[in-house]
Structure formats: C-alpha cells, structure tokens
Specification:
The chain is of the alpha/beta class. The chain has 5 helices and 5 strands, in the order E-H-E-H-E-H-E-H-E-H. The two termini are about 10 Å apart.
C-alpha cells in the first residue's frame, strides 16, 4: 500500500483520481492548493504526489520546485490540462516531475504512473 497525495483545485478531479486509485487500496490524501500540498507533504510524507499545474495561489510548477528543493527524493506526477503543452511539460520535467500526464487522462495512464514507482 502506498501513500498518495492528490493535489487539484477541482473537486471532481480529486474525486476521479481517488476513485481510480482507491481500488488498489492506497492511502489517499488530497489538497486543493500548492501551499496545502507542501504542508500535507510534511505531515504524511507520501510515496507519490499527483499535482495539477493550474492552482489558486501558488501554481503547481512553483509548488513542485519548492517541494523538490526541500525533498529531492519526492516522486511527483504532474497531471494537468496544460500538461500537453510542450513548454509546460519541459518545465515540469526540469523541475523534477517523474511523469507528466495531460488531462483528459486514461485510467491506464494513472495506473502506469503508480506501477512505475
């Protein structure tokens, strides 16, 4: 069982990812903002963070950079509607994301991201 932290400002997307990953009996926490993700990371030290790019306040790329500065071992999967844009994909990978998945994503893509860890 892995600990997962799903960060997305959309309640629907947090629910969707939780539903996709729940059947594997993972421990799942959620966050709505980059700031909340950083605080929850400190509390629970998840095995994987799913992170949206477009968030209120601190965007996901800035949150990713801050997380990786403090925790270079953190495993992050960027999951975003803007993830398909080459510039965003490149920035996310340079900042330390393990994988970038563009929304709308498939169940298979999400499960493959977890299986690769």
């Amino acid at each position: 069982m892995m600990k997962l932290l799903i960060t997305d400002d959309s309640g629907f997307m947090r629910e969707l990812l939780t539903d996709i990953l729940a059947d594997a009996e993972h421990q799942i926490e959620t966050a709505e903002t980059g700031e909340e993700m950083l605080a929850k990371y400190e509390e629970i030290t998840p095995d994987v963070v799913f992170l949206d790019v477009v968030l209120p306040g601190m965007n996901g790329l800035n949150a990713l950079q801050q997380l990786k500065e403090k925790h270079p071992e953190a495993k992050v999967v960027v999951c975003s509607a803007v993830g398909g844009q080459e510039g965003v994909r490149k920035q996310a990978m340079e900042a330390g994301a393990m994988r970038v998945i563009a929304k709308p994503f498939s169940v298979k893509e999400i499960k493959e991201a977890i299986a690769d860890i």
